[in-house]
Design brief:
This protein is α/β, with parallel strands linked by helices. It has one domain (2-246): Vaccinia Virus protein VP39 (Rossmann fold, 3-Layer(aba) Sandwich), CATH 3.40.50.150. The protein has 13 helices and 9 strands. A 7-stranded mixed beta sheet has the order 3-2-1-4-5-9-6, with helices on both faces. It starts with a helix and ends with a strand.
Length: 247
């Protein structure tokens, strides 16, 4: 995707895989011996049995580690693979970027012999539970409203399956949207925001008023008083979901 040629420059440094989330993803893949990662980015969460990564952005591909699986520049809607090419196909925090969701999901189903694993989020839960977009940056939530895909719709397109909540640790190593739910100062860092597509693509001009209020609330202690209960939590469910479909 062209936008990630600009937005993906910092991903290898800000979007490191979190081992707890990785364990849940790898467990969902089960005993698959051959895995294809679609919308692979810089390669986060790829298990050792990954045989191919598919990623449209060359900027993202160049950030893959030297020992990672081979990568091909292609889009989800046209996977350069034969039918039933892999035991499992995974697509992590990527379906909302696809130009043709139905075609992309159709390609996942065509290529996967046994299982498809998709990491996404429930926008309604995200809006309701995540303080940053609910109370400070509704502009970012509005942007996500235009691209978030309802999980029930994805399950239908996948031909059925189950949903697993993905709880975000308070010290999450992967800097995706809600990763810093207990570390609010991080959202004031432009380097961190550059690695979060909902913030980077909304743009600082739109975010500045909310970020200014957040900075002031952190300085005065109002944020810590208002969200004191968050300090008692080790993990939080803010709507991230792992969808698992078997053929």
């Amino acid at each position: 995707m062209a936008t990630y040629d600009a937005l993906g420059v910092t991903y290898a440094r800000t979007r490191r895989p979190d081992p707890r989330i990785a364990a849940q993803i790898h467990a969902a893949l089960g005993d698959a011996e051959h895995v294809v990662n679609v919308g692979a980015g810089s390669g986060s969460y790829e298990p050792p049995q990954t045989v191919l990564a598919v990623e449209p952005s060359l900027v993202m591909i160049t950030q893959r580690s030297p020992g990672a699986a081979p990568a091909v520049a292609a889009v989800a809607e046209h996977l350069p693979l034969r039918d039933n090419a892999a035991d499992a196909v995974m697509a992590l925090l990527t379906v909302h970027h696809w130009a043709d969701l139905r075609a992309g999901i159709g390609e996942l189903r065509r290529v996967a012999r046994r299982r498809i694993v998709v990491l996404t989020w429930d926008q309604h839960i995200f809006r309701e539970r995540f303080w940053l977009v609910r109370d400070y940056l509704p502009e970012a939530a509005a942007y996500d409203d235009t691209r978030a895909v309802p999980t029930d719709q994805l399950i239908d397109l996948l031909g059925g399956g189950r949903q697993e909540p993905v709880h975000v640790p308070h010290d999450c190593a992967d800097g995706f949207g809600a990763a810093y739910w207990r570390r609010p100062h991080a959202y004031l860092d432009p380097y961190v925001r550059a690695g979060i597509s909902m913030l980077a693509q909304t743009g600082d001009d739109a975010l500045t008023p909310g970020l200014t209020r957040l900075a002031d609330d952190l300085k005065t202690g109002r944020w810590h008083r208002r969200y004191a209960e968050l300090r008692t939590l080790d993990t939080m469910d803010v709507g991230y979901r792992l969808l698992v479909t078997d053929h």
